[in-house]
Amino acid sequence: MDKYPLKKYPVVGACCLNCGLCPRYYDEGRSKSFYCTSCQLIPLDRLRKAVSGAETGIAEGAGIKEKAKVIRTAINNLADTLKIDLELRK
């Protein structure tokens, strides 16, 4: 018997925002921190609008890497427009 079943809790990213990016796109293996950084720095309504606009340009049979590339380009273009630097500094 599991005291805290996973089904009860919503799937959110590492940033704890329910943006919807992490569960759908970070599975390519390299962009999870990029999505979480963009969710923290870019206003969420503008980010969702950019992502939904980019999703219309994704081919139906596209793989996860192609999808991630299109979404990442859209987020970078939005960040450039808003003059936000998304580079991760360690």
Any overview of this molecule?
- This protein is an all-alpha fold.
- The chain has one domain (8-81).
- 50% of the residues lie in helices and 0% in strands.
- The chain has helices spanning 21-25, 32-41, 44-55, 64-81.
- α3 (44-55) crosses α4.
- The longest helix is centred in the C-terminal third of the chain and has 18 residues, at 64-81.
- The chain is globular and about 35 Å long.
- It starts with 20 loop residues before the first helix and ends in a 9-residue tail after the last helix.
- The model is unreliable at 4-9 (pLDDT under 50).
Radius of gyration: 14 Å
Separation of the first and last Cα atoms:
41 Å
Secondary structure: helix percent:
40-55%
Strand content: under 5%
Average pLDDT rating: 76
Q: Give, in order, the helices and strands.
A: HHHH
How many structural domains can be distinguished in the coordinates? 1
Total beta strand runs = 0
Give the class from helix and strand content and strand pairing: mainly alpha
Categorize the overall geometry: globular
Main beta sheet strand tally, sense and closure: none
Low-confidence stretches: 4-9
The helix tally amounts to 4
